[in-house]
Amino acid sequence: MSKIPFITKEKAEEIASAFPTPYHVYDEKGISENADRVSSAFSWNPGYREYFAVKAMPTPAVLKLLKSHGCGADCASMAELLLAEKCGFSGSEIMFSSNNTPDEEFVKAYDLGAIINLDDITHIDVLNRLCGIPETICCRYNPGGIYSVSNHIMDNPGDAKYGMTRPQIFEAFARLKALGAKKFGIHAFLASNTLTDYYYPQLAEQLFTLARDLQYETGAQVAFINLSGGVGVNYQPDGYVNDILKIGEGVRQAYEKILLPAGMTDVAVFTEMGRFMLAPYGHLITRAIREKHIYKEYIGVDASACDLMRPAIYGAYHHITVLGKEDAVHDHVYDVAGSLCENNDKFAIDRSLPEIETGDLLCVHDTGAHGRAMGYNYNGKLRSGEVLLHPDGTFSVIRRRETVDDYFATIIW
Ligand SMILES: *Cc1c(COP(=O)(O)O)cnc(C)c1O
């Protein structure tokens, strides 16, 4: 099987003639349709909101596009808060889900009227001292142990630095209530990039049960449950693809099973997806500039791990299409490499691909989340820019590439 790019070779070359490779290109139509599917999956819940995890793609044109489809913004740093503010998000459209939070970030989030999600019980005193406790407040929960879905180990919350233990979250709710909080939220992020329709429903069941117990024991009114991120996308060309409509339906069933019988009928469900919102709707377009024949066959491209870090740090698979050769036989085996002086700077290892000639454009799939955003400047490599491809086939450059002046800008000579 193969993944079909949302861009043709002709369009990619047309963009490249105005805006040379490498560049990330994003599919406005795909993003919009997916965002609408997400809303409809949770439309049974009147208070539902997706808070897009800004770290996955901190690019204003796309943040505003998501906003136009009803999304809020999930931030975890000063710069992300400022970015959300500049994009027009305000008040409860901003979720501040940070950890190890510096004072000034609490103050900024408070001043914006953002919903503050406390990562730790000790943060109650910090926030109270800095700003006071807002009426609406959220606490992040960590159940510890190992997290599995249908006997399959998904992740290890007991090893994660995030969230409060069960006894702590009970104590936190009681103290926050005494300090004036009126509406409470619960947040948990227990597994990343899950490829199953059961992750959210199972997490929802766990958090709804906790919400019921917390409301019963502390009298605190639970106003929302934040299922956070973790809904995955399949980076491989075959295998399961999550069905957000089934996921939303699974959460609805958990809601009806646990919250409604407890008389909790107006609890809002929030999500904070990054990857699922954008990953499939981004491609890194890079040109083959060199070939090398030693113990293996190499194709050198003009992008590097500085533009897309996931293969280098996680050994992550990203599918590659050689544009214009979509139907050619995959009878060559290549390592596709960037130019960093780091041997892990490879977009593909031992990958079967059509014969690649210098000048060919390669499309690296699924770069719309945690792609450009994770870029860095090692070896003095300058990060690529970003292009938004509109539904009518026109495009806009939404971030220019970095220049040497950007690289020098922080240096005191
Ligand atoms: C990273 C992150 C997300 C988004 O995760 P995805 O895997 O991209 O869905 C959501 N919430 C928090 C707090 C995060 O740190």
Short description:
The protein has 413 residues and is of the alpha/beta class. The protein has twelve helices and 19 strands.
Fold and architecture overview:
With 413 residues, the protein is α/β, with parallel strands linked by helices. The protein has two domains: 9-25 and 280-408, Lyase, Ornithine Decarboxylase, Chain A, domain 1 (Beta Barrel), CATH 2.40.37.10; 28-275, TIM Barrel, CATH 3.20.20. Helix content is 30%, strand content 23%. Helix 2 packs parallel to helix 9 (244-259) and helix 8 (199-218) packs parallel to helix 9 (244-259). The radius of gyration is 23 Å and the shape is globular. The N and C termini lie far apart (53 Å). The protein binds pyridoxal-5'-phosphate. The site of pyridoxal-5'-phosphate has 18 residues, from helix 10.
Fold blueprint:
Elements (H helix, E strand, L loop, with lengths): L8 H10 L4 E5 H14 L7 E5 L6 H9 L3 E4 L2 H9 L7 E4 L5 H10 L2 E4 L4 H8 L5 E5 L6 E3 L2 E4 L10 H13 L4 E5 L11 H20 L2 E6 L17 H16 L8 E4 L3 H4 L3 E12 L3 E5 L8 H5 L5 E3 L9 E6 L8 E8 L7 E4 L20 E5 L5 E5 L4 H5 L5
Parallel strand pairs: 1-18, 2-3, 2-11, 3-4, 4-5, 5-6, 6-9, 9-10, 10-11, 13-15
Antiparallel strand pairs: 1-12, 7-8, 12-13, 12-17, 14-17, 15-16, 18-19
The protein binds pyridoxal-5'-phosphate.
The site of pyridoxal-5'-phosphate has 18 residues, from helix 10.
